[in-house]
Write a structure and sequence with these properties.
Length: about 250
């Protein structure tokens, strides 16, 4: 199978927590099983220290539009342990001292997700599975199913979300649904992407993905609990049969 993995951090290039470990380990294991895996991630300032070790190569350069904002995505690539990495560079968004915790994080990762979808098109990469991790990548299934639903490139693609840190749900005002992503307010008004009066990229992926996973049975039970502090239990209960512990899944 051809698998496209989207994560805001992946070992050994960038890590702030367990997300990077899981995204890398899963990708490596899938390669060992004989699958073709690509990883698409931002290229942060800290990653340039590893350029000599991993030999980043220029690959592509294209414009990305977030409404009136026009900016460029410069793509670099490398291969590690049989995994093809594509790294999306943009100075204003990613040449910063830290990976996260900036006031414009929603805009930064909107850019990352829009650029990621465009990269798949430029690559003509017909993925069997698109696997997104946490809120920073969670709107990719929404973008594809809403804006590219008639694109034959994605005709048979299945989507997986893995929830690592449900405390961060990618919430923003509905104004930015159109302003960043070019999507209609109808998706908010009918509740599809709405969560606690805001748009939530993570909640949206719970609706749009074919399978939802998390990293342990305990974490799954915690998220389904009616008293969960993360308040995702209502949506997850509706998707209970599709909510499983992260394993290498086979699609029939």
């Amino acid at each position: 199978m051809k698998i496209a993995m989207f994560s805001s951090e992946v070992n050994p290039l960038a890590k702030s927590g367990g997300l990077a470990d899981v995204a890398y380990s899963l990708s490596k294991e899938l390669v060992k099983m004989g699958h073709e895996v690509i990883v698409v991630m931002p290229l942060y300032k800290s990653m340039w220290k590893k350029e000599k070790t991993y030999h980043f190569q220029d690959f592509d350069d294209f414009e990305v539009s977030l409404s009136w904002r026009k900016t460029h995505a410069k793509i670099y690539t490398t291969e590690i342990d049989g995994i093809k990495y594509y790294m999306i560079a943009n100075g204003p968004y990613f040449e910063r001292d830290n990976l996260y915790s900036y006031p414009d994080d929603n805009e930064r990762f909107a850019f990352y997700q829009l650029a990621s979808v465009q990269l798949l098109k430029n690559l003509n990469y017909k993925a069997d599975i698109i696997h997104v991790h946490d809120h920073q990548a969670s709107f990719i299934p929404v973008l594809i199913k809403e804006k590219d639903k008639d694109n034959p490139l994605f005709k048979n693609t299945k989507f997986i979300l893995t929830i690592h840190n449900p405390a961060f749900r990618g919430e923003f005002d509905k104004f930015y649904l159109n302003d960043y992503y070019g999507l209609s307010d109808e998706l908010f008004d009918n509740g599809t992407v709405r969560f606690n009066g805001m748009v939530s990229t993570l909640k949206s992926a719970l609706v749009y993905c074919d399978k939802i996973t998390t990293v342990s049975p305990t974490h799954r039970d915690e998220l389904l609990d009616v008293n969960s502090e993360f308040h995702l239990n209502g949506v997850l209960e509706m998707r209970r049969d599709d909510f499983v512990v992260l394993v290498v899944m086979r699609w029939i």
